[in-house]
Write a structure and sequence with these properties.
Two copies of one chain form a homodimer. Chain A is 75% helix and 0% strand. By secondary structure, chain A is mainly α. The first copy, chain A, binds a DNA duplex through α3.
DNA sequence: GCTTGTATTAAACAGTTGTTTGAAATTATT
DNA sequence: AATAATTTCAAACAACTGTTTAATACAAGC
């Protein structure tokens, strides 16, 4: 044991700090040397354990998703026994906390948001394994609120509306920090923002539901 | 005249292709050599005309905003004579077309979206000169729909909801392209998406307006 | 026609990048 | 204890980066 920090093996430490640095800097601007420096391992370790910077990135991304689902599981929301409005509120709260939890997941979700905004080859697998299931769950809830089977395109547009209202807190974080910092000041503020999005969306959806019955 | 493409002077060509390359690659991944190659000028020209890569980026960003406002002016929406619902619909349509117009502005808005998602030093000036005025206009329209003077925080949250519903089409373009390409297939599809966001938002806002009167 | 100031060029610079190397250290196996 | 396999290391590599240089080409002014 040559390193004082070597409680975790080098492989795991690399993965962990890769998430950190890739999230802060993006794939290209992140340097192998910076990751290794923080992980307290030699520069050559990346190529020894991961073959290349690119596969390290891919594995870091997968790791980030695993952590996100571990810390913020969707289990409770999948329960179809609950009223759909409550499930939607829970879904949005879960999503927003996932996005804005700086203490645990901030870096993970930032890494993911980065990949969505500026995709690499790794995106396709992520869409398959992580995004499609989440979208399916949200689509099911929306369909339930809208009532009688609705045009698929309308469900998709509503889904994007809700998705966008949450994601803006991550993607436009720089603007919110400067103009409306009180909206995300602490956990209770985030919770209030989440509830606002839920109320906003439920109000819109139930209006659509009415039109749906009439038409 | 040593260059065949030198209808525009070198300075302007640099600015134009800087927008293109910075939008495609981001600030760091974009190379001065690539910009100069496309602009058909010598590598040294960037430092000759702009002192550094960084000031070229700043100027390219300002140029992108000027072009966006030139091609999609907000003039008609500022008119306070129109009903606020109509103004909101126009605002959203304007914004979404700005974001998704691949033929003219796609690169400009991508550059701007990039700067928001991953800010450099240039962001602060952009917020002052471009974002705050646009937010003020949208806030005014929202306030008008909500009726009797509303809590400022609620207006801000509604503003972010609408902003986010539009911006998701840019930031999550990679996902939409793969999962729901028909939503942005052509101009009429974009228009339909814009109208959906407007209806969704107006439905939510008018529900809030009711609660506002009662409370 | 000469001078002055601007524009353009090829070449080089100094720094950083991901990756490779081959030896040394460590651990596991017999 | 001796051998084999794995892990770690400092050093170097080749490629690429933004920037500078100093020489050249060009136009305008007198």
């Amino acid at each position: 044991m040559t390193k004082s920090t070597a409680i975790e093996p080098a492989f795991n430490r690399l993965l962990q700090f890769a998430v950190e640095v890739f999230a802060e800097c993006g794939f290209r601007e992140a340097t192998v040397r910076e990751i290794c420096s923080r992980a307290n391992v030699n520069v050559a370790s990346v190529n020894y354990y991961f073959r290349s910077k690119e596969t390290l990135y891919t594995q870091a991304l997968a790791f980030a998703f695993r952590e996100a689902n571990r810390l913020y599981p969707l289990d409770a929301i999948i329960n179809r026994g609950l009223p759909p409005e409550q499930r939607l509120t829970m879904f949005i709260g879960n999503f927003l906390h996932k996005l804005l939890d700086d203490s645990h997941l901030g870096l993970h979700s930032k890494l993911i948001a980065r990949e969505i905004a500026d995709p690499t080859k790794a995106l396709d697998e992520i869409i398959e394994t992580a995004i499609i299931p989440q979208f399916a769950l949200l689509a099911e809830i929306i369909q339930q609120i809208l009532g009688t089977p609705t045009d698929k395109v309308i469900v998709q547009r509503c889904l994007l509306c809700i998705f966008g209202q949450c994601l803006v807190f991550k993607h436009s974080r720089s603007i919110i920090d400067r103009l409306y910092p009180e909206l995300i000041a602490d956990d209770s503020a985030i919770q209030a923002s989440a509830e606002h999005i839920a109320q906003f969306s439920i109000a819109a959806l139930s209006r659509f539901a009415k039109n749906n019955k009439r038409g």
